[in-house]
Amino acid sequence: MNALPPIRRLRVAIIGGGFSGAAVAWHLARMHRPERISISVIEPRPVLGGGLAYSTEEPSHRVNVPAVRMSMVPDDPRHFARWLTGSGELERDTDAIWKNGDAYPRRRVFGRYVAEHLAPHLGSGVVHHVEGSATNVTRDASGAGWTVHTSSGLVAADIVVLAATHPHPAIPAALIQLAEAPGFIADPYVASALAGIGPEASVLIVGSGLTSADMVAELSRRGHRGRIVALSRRGLRSRGHPDIRGEPFGDFASAPATTALGLLKNIRATLAAARAANVNWQSVFDQLRLQGPVLWAALTPPERARLVRQLRVFWDVHRFRIAPQVASVLDRRHEGGTFDTIAARLVASNVEDGSLAVSFQRRGQTRIETARFDAVINTTGPAHGQAPRLNPALSSLAQAGLIRMDQYGLGIETSLDSRAVGRDGGTTTTLFVAGPLARATFGELMGLPEVARHAQAVAAEIVKLLETPATISANVVPGPLAS
């Protein structure tokens, strides 16, 4: 009897090896028989799992939620906390433990946790790290396969997952005149971006969210004691964590609001009920976060657009909280008169006698003010809406009509099974999107628990294809498939 021919291993290429891409690879490697699958993770950083958020070597950059709420395993929220306890990291960083007992380790520690769990699959040969950047993605002539062009060579694949990193922050138009000026920091994520700022320098931080707070903490650790001003349209600073964590409070999903205004009314009513019950507001937002996909799904596209346009900034500062160690630095600097947050819009900028002159208009006023700074730091946040244009691999797919931006400017439009939606509204069976770039379909998809859950879901969809490989040759499913 002749032996059956060997079954070819199906090839999965994951573009992006930060948390999203690494989590998809890890779940996929655990879900399927290793002899049937080969996973290539394309990532320029030398280690998988860290990405932009968790590769930073800056000691003042900490995870912004307690360790007990961070995990690669959605059904085991204490997975990271148990690893952390046995890692020795807490002994080396005693400041990680806050006064209420919660641990907020340095962000690079979480990156190490992800890398260590992925390492056995790298060692077994199921997962391969292609250390390079994806520059182009093309479909094979047959339409049944892909070629990912990278700075390290070509990667052939049957299935492609787009888990690209956060795009660099866009420079506000009013600051374009400073783009090449010494002292202007366009991308605060570059290693040692703040190293050239002297201890007495006056600093303008454009933005007042999590990255802005990180910049204040890092400057302070470096011995900075000059004036810092954080400027944003609303002047809202990211909120902190309660001293005592509570359980999620409220019910928004039983009868979800169908309008942005209705949702806002429900939130306000629930906050009032929480105050009456002596429950902190953070518990209300924890419930909103858990029920976010249901709430987002209940809104029509126009109401979703209204929510993003009018309420997103308020959601962000309450939902994405800063570690208490960072909050204490901001409070101390504010009390000492060396840090302030103002609500204003940028008007113009230029270089004057070696200083960076920035003109702005405070909220509610008509007068234009101009102030001079020694340094200006851009922390406007990742330009997710421009990802298909800024990322060359995504750009190649957009030009081929295989992906398109979502209508809310949040990233890439996907179907409910996380497949990318193309120019004509259809989806390609073997092209997936994982992580924050898919949040226009799923709502809340920036926090780590939600990203971990989505990575697991994407891996499960790929496993379905692996179990019925004939479906892989089915190219395009006609739209519309996305809500």
Compute the number of strand runs.
17
* Number of H/I helices: 16
How much helix is in the residues? 25-40%
Overall average residue pLDDT: 90
Largest sheet: 7 strands, mixed
Strand content: 15-25%
List the helices and strands and how they pair.
Elements (H helix, E strand, L loop, with lengths): L9 E6 L3 H13 L5 E6 L8 H4 L24 H9 L1 H4 L14 H18 L2 E4 L3 E6 L6 E5 L2 E5 L1 E4 L21 E2 L17 E4 L3 H12 L6 E5 L27 H17 L4 H10 L1 H7 L2 H10 L1 H8 L4 H12 L3 E14 L2 E8 L5 E6 L1 E4 L8 H4 L1 H8 L19 E3 L5 E7 L5 H4 L5 H20 L8 E2 L6
Parallel strand pairs: 1-2, 1-7, 2-3, 7-16, 8-14, 9-10, 9-14, 10-11
Antiparallel strand pairs: 4-5, 5-6, 11-12, 12-13, 15-16, 16-17
Helix pairs in contact: 1-5, 1-16, 6-12
Detailed description of the structure:
With 483 residues, this protein is an alpha/beta fold. 33% of the residues lie in helices and 19% in strands. It contains 16 helices and 17 strands. The protein has helices at 19-31, 51-54, 79-87, 89-92, 107-124, 210-221, 260-276, 281-290, 292-298, 301-310, 312-319, 324-335, 387-390, 392-399, 439-442, 448-467; strands at 10-15, 37-42, 127-130, 134-139, 146-150, 153-157, 159-162, 184-185, 203-206, 228-232, 339-352, 355-362, 368-373, 375-378, 419-421, 427-433, 476-477. Strands 1, 2, 3, 7, 15, 16 and 17 form a 7-stranded mixed sheet that branches. Strand 4 and strand 5 (146-150) form a beta hairpin. The longest helix is centred in the last third of the chain and has 20 residues, at 448-467. The radius of gyration is 23 Å and the shape is globular.
